[in-house]
Amino acid sequence: MSDRLKVGILGGTGMVGQRFISLLDNHPWFEVTVIAASPRSAGKTYAEAVGDRWKMTTPMPEAVKNIVVMNVNEVEKVAAGVDFVFSAVDMTKDEIKKIEEEYAKTETPVVSNNSAHRWTPDVPMVVPEINPEHMKVIDFQKKRLGTTRGFIAVKPNCSIQSYAPVLTAWKEFEPYEVVATTYQAISGAGKNFKDWPEMEGNIIPYIGGEEEKSEKEPLRIWGEIKDGEIVPAVSPVITCQCIRVPVLNGHTAAVFVKLKKKATKEQLIEKLINFKGEPQELELPSAPKQFIQYLKEDNRPQVTADVDYEKGMGVSVGRLREDNVYDWKFVGLSHNTVRGAAGGAVLCAELLKAQGYITKK
């Protein structure tokens, strides 16, 4: 019998679900044993349910092709076959909140890629290198849910991964005002160019709800636990514009920042390249060896050259220079469906296992 934890993927046929399947192929700690999706996919093998809609550049793993897809709404039945689940369901926010709590109440931990629970006060929203201590709020959540091992944890929005780690690395210089424009890939909408031909040679200067998430979610990550809830930080003030661009994978951010404390360019770069957190110290399987790389070339980072840095789990930064209105400006790049979505959730699950929150049933 395998020592690996049994994992279910909720919403396993969609783009993020497919990314989970790809990343978990031959994972040393986790094994996909259950895939659940909408009733129209239930009863088919995974290969049949996905059909010609496989969106990854790598082939569908052999280990999942013949898994019979279950109905995601049959919560007790799905939960019975797994130790925990990843959630990437495509539902309304209220439906997601309800079904993720239903899974948690079966004593099944839920690690979610969805945004529905990101502002539930006792649900941790974690970038493992930045705020691993927020997982402690799970103990308060379990009391509310009436569970002993079931809970929900979430990862934040994909777009903030290209600049929130940078601002965290510079924390001692006290960033207090930030302007960020993100140039976001179409896979962030769960699509590729075949699905969305009107995106070729086009940009759309609006992504619903994205700017609010990009401005507010970093503050929750930098917050602290008080009275069993996560209280967001109040600084820095962030304002964002989010633009959809004709790129398949990779969110780029152009960022301007004001610092309360003076810093040299050399100091700022040194903080970036030496920044690490618990995933690096614990040597978690999905953790990048070096979380942030700094590129000195004027034309970097670029999506084609840098999006897969550290297998898509690292952040690339370049073009750091002084600004004549703000103090500093830089360009950041992160992989939106790896670090920003499924990979970030897998790393959260690895951290939760290391912290003792996810165990065998």
From TrEMBL:
Enzyme class label: oxidoreductase
MF terms (GO), sorted A to Z: aspartate-semialdehyde dehydrogenase activity
Tagged with keyword Oxidoreductase: yes
Entry superkingdom: Bacteria
EC number: 1.2.1.11
Domain Semialdehyde dehydrogenase NAD-binding: 6-138
InterPro entries reported for this sequence: ASADH-related, Asp_semi-ald_DH_pep-lack, NAD(P)-bd_dom_sf, Semialdehyde_DH_NAD-bd, Semialdhyde_DH_dimer_dom
Swiss-Prot/TrEMBL keywords: NADP, Oxidoreductase
Protein family per UniProt: Belongs to the aspartate-semialdehyde dehydrogenase family.
Name of the protein described by the UniProt record: Aspartate-semialdehyde dehydrogenase
